[in-house]
Amino acid sequence: MAKLGILLTLGPFQFENWETASNVANAALDKGHEVQMFFYLDGVYNPIKCQTFPDWSVLPKDRFAELVKKGANIIACGVCVNARGLEKGKDYIDGVTVGGLPDFAQIMSEVDSLVTL
After folding, report:
1. How confident is the model at residue 47 (pLDDT cuts 50, 70, 90)?
2. pTM above 0.70, yes or no
């Protein structure tokens, strides 16, 4: 099976890139492919577990938690996390790790395709 990389650079409430990223990742996992995701810049806001938005029944954090359970590997950029006061990702959903650009470089070297959103 193929390995898919996804780079997500936008936050959850600016645009719907998080939804596109989660839909693509979910479809790939359903077909048996491996998914590696890297959250960069404001993308690091997506897996915060205390998200709330009154009009949405399913939040970004819920979708990414489902992807982790299905086997997706999600890494958030540590410099971006700390620069935004997210304290090393301690408020992230389970399964999301904090790493660095070397992790993204590793992802790029391993995947067959990279989707950037």
Report:
1. very high
2. yes
